[in-house]
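Why Transmembrane protein? Reviewers of the renewal asked for a concrete example.
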Amino acid sequence: MENFTIEKMEIKRFNALLVRTIASTLLLGWIAWWIYCIDNNESTWGMSYFNAFVLLIYAAVAWKTSATLEKIKNDKRLAEALDGEIYSVYNYKSLATGFYAALIAGVIVFTFGDCLNLSVHIASLIIIFIAGLSSQIRKLILYKP
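Here is what the prediction returned.
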């Protein structure tokens, strides 16, 4: 397999991971804001239409990303070239980053949760949001082609 093809697919994979990170960040951020509005009895008029719009965008991005990653997985040469031992180390490092970020976020939410009047829903969403975002950002930093 030519190096040009491998580099081209690695760039496509990086772009797919970047778009997935952005879409998941927006989706989780929107869900946290929506739950916060519901918990504080603020007006949620028109949010159902926006929720549908956000979910459609996320579904389209997830489909496009999975199509790119599935294309790499199905091509035996690309899979061998792009799924080496180094990428499993990258996944391990990004998961460890997400774990430690969740621990730190838990301590911060526990410490400042009463001051900010956060419910259990919002606190858990904040922890999930921070852990997922830090894990994906670490993965992007490590995968940079």
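Residues 3-143 form one domain. This is the kind of structural detail the renewal will allow us to pursue systematically.
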